[in-house]
Amino acid sequence: MRYIVGVDIGGTFTDCVAIRASTDGTPPVVKIGKSSSTPPDFQTGFIASLRTAAEMHDVTLEEMLADAQVYHGCTVGTNALVEHKTARVGLLATRGHTDTVFIMKAGNRLKFMPADYIAHVAKQTKPEPLVPKWLCEGIDERISFDGQVFAALNEDTARDAISRIVDQGVEAIAISLLWSTANDTHEKRLRELVHEIAPDLFVSISSEVSPRVGEYERTIATIVNALIGPPMRLYLEALQVDLKRCGYTRSLQIMSCAGGLIDAEHAAEVPVLTVGSGPVAGLIGAASLANAAAVGGSRNVITADVGGTTLDIGTIFDGVPVRRPTASYGQYEYFVPTLDVRSVGAGGGSIIRTEGAMLKVGPHSAGARPGPVCFSRGGQQPTVTDAAAVLGFFDPDYFFGGKIALDLAAAEIALARVGAPLGLDAKQTAAAALRIIDSQMADSIWLTLTQQGHDPRDFVLYGFGGGGGLHGAAIARELGARSVVIPMSNLAAGWSAFGISASEALVTEQTAIGLSSPFDPEEINRRWPILEARVIEKLAKQGVPVDAIEFKRFAELRYSLQINQVAVPAEAGVYDAATVQRLVATFEAEYERLFGQGSGFAAAGFGLTGLQVHGAAKLSDLRVGELVQQGSDMTGDDAKKPRDIIWYGRGGGAESTAVFDGARLGTGFSTSGPAVIEFPDTTVVVPHGCTARIDPTGSVVIDLHASV
Fold this sequence. Notes:
Shape: globular
Oligomer: single chain
C-alpha cells in the first residue's frame, strides 16, 4: 500500500491529504487536494478532491486508488443534525418511561448554553423534543437491575405499537428499555419484530449504541443514532459505489469522535460515533506530531482549530488527548465516549456589529455564502476576515493562493458603517474587532483548560485551520502559553484531513457494572475478556490481526451516593485485592487533580460503575516523524516582500512589515517579528517581540519570548 489518503468534508471545502510512501528510503511525500463541497451529494466533492490530490502526485485517480487506503472524516451525520435534516424517528420505551426524554434533567435546560441565555431566567426553556410524543410507544416488559426478567415482553402488544409507528411513515426506530444494559434480550427481540413488519427500516437499540447505566443519556444517544442513521447509510452506500467505480477495492475507514478509525459498515450501524469527528481529527494530528517530532518542545498542547464559523478547542496532556464520557447535541447530552473538543462561535466569518455603545464580534457567522464583504459574494455585514484584510494582514491578490480577489474598499465601507455610532473609522473598528475576537478565543481556551484542571502556561498552542496562523500568537500571549506551532504549515488549513490520515483503527467496547466497595476482583476479571473479545471481532473486520492490537483498559468510579463518575486507566492482567486497591488509589488521585485537594471523601465508600476496553492498531506504516519540509532552502532576504500593516493593539499607523512566501522557505529559516509568512491557504502572523522558525516538519514555530 503506497498511498495513505485522508479526506475531510467541510461546509465550504473538501480537503484531501494524500501521503505517498517512499520506496527508496527518502521521506514520504505529502500533497493536498481541495475541491468545493457539494451538498447534498457530498460524494461528488469527495471524488473531486481525490482527483486533485492524485494530480499533485502526477498520477491518475485510478492509479492512486489501486494502491491506497482511504480514510474519511464524515460530516454527514453532524450536518444533518445542525441543519435539522434528519430522519423521522419513532421511539419504543418501557411502558411508563416514554416521557423521560421530554422531562429531561434539570441541568440540561442550561447546559451548553451561552452566559447571556443562562442569565435571563424568564427566557429559559426546554429545547424542541427529538421525537414527537405521538411517535413514542410504551412497551409491556420489564428487566430488573440485575438482569432478571421481571415482566416478559408482550410480543402481541409490541407488534401493535410498532405497526402504529410504522404507519406514521417513520424512517427509523429507536429502542431504549430499562436496564437493557444488564439484559439486552428484549431490545434485540423488538428489533426482530420491527424487521418482520418493516424489513428495511433503520433500527437503533440502546444496548448496542450506549451500553451504560443512565436511562436519559442512553436514550438520547439511541435517538440521535436513529435520527442520522438513514442519511448516513445512503451516503456511505453511494460513496462506496463511486470509489469502487474508480478502482478502489479496500475497506473504507471512517473517523470516529473517539479519535480512531472504524470500518464503514460499523459507521453505518452506529453513525452517532461519527458526530463531531471532524474537529477530533485535527486533535489526533496534533498529538501525532507532538509525540513523533516534539514540535514546539512540549507534549502538553492546546489545539485551536480556527475555521470560518467556529473555534474548536482540544487538549493534549503529556501526549495524550483528553477524553470525556459524554457528547452533546444542542442541550441534549448523551453517553458516547469522545475526545474533549469544544466549539465556540468565533472564526473568520464572525460578524462585527454594534449593540448600544458596544462593539461585538460573533457568535453569528456570515458562513460561506454570502461570506465576508471582501469576498464580493453579496455579504453586507463585516466579518473578522474583513477586519484582517483592511489592516493589511492579507495580500488581496494572493488570498487562498490567488483564487479569491479581496475587495478592500467594500470591506472598509462596511466597517466604517458599523463603527460610526461609536466614533470609529474603518481601521479603528477593524483593530478593535480583532482584539475582541482574540480575547474571546483566549477566554474560551482558558475556561476549557482550567475546567480540566490544567494551567495554560504549561502548554504549547497549535493553531491550524484557515485562521490558526492569524490568531495563534495573540491568543497564546493572552494565555501565557510557551509558544505557538502552525503544524506543517502547507497543510495547516486542511489539518483535519491530515489528522485523519495519521489515525489508527480504534474500537471501544464498554459495559455497565454496579459494584460497591469492597469490589470483587473475580467479577471484574469476568468482564474484561468479554469486552476484549468484542474489540477483536470488530477490528478483524478492518483486517487487524490480534497480535497487532494494543489494548487499554479504563474503569469508571465514583464516591458512593454521587451521581457523576470519573474514568481512570486500569491495569492489564488478572485482578486481585491489591490490583483493586491500586485502581481505587488511581481514582482518588485523579479526582483530586480534577476537583482540588481534599475534595474526595473515601469514608463514603466507592462505586465501580463501568468498564471500557480500547483496542487500537496501526493500519499503515506511516510515521509522522518521518515527514519533513519539502520546500527550498531559500533565505529570508530572497523571499521578502514588505507590506504596510496596522498592528492592532500597539496604536499608531501602518508599519512596513516583512512578508515571506512560506512555500519557498525551507528548514532552518528564521525571522523576528513583526513579520507575516504567507502560505497558499493560510497566513501566519509573527507579532513584535517574537521570533519564528521553520522546523524539519515544515511547521512554523513562534517563540513568545517578549512582552510588547
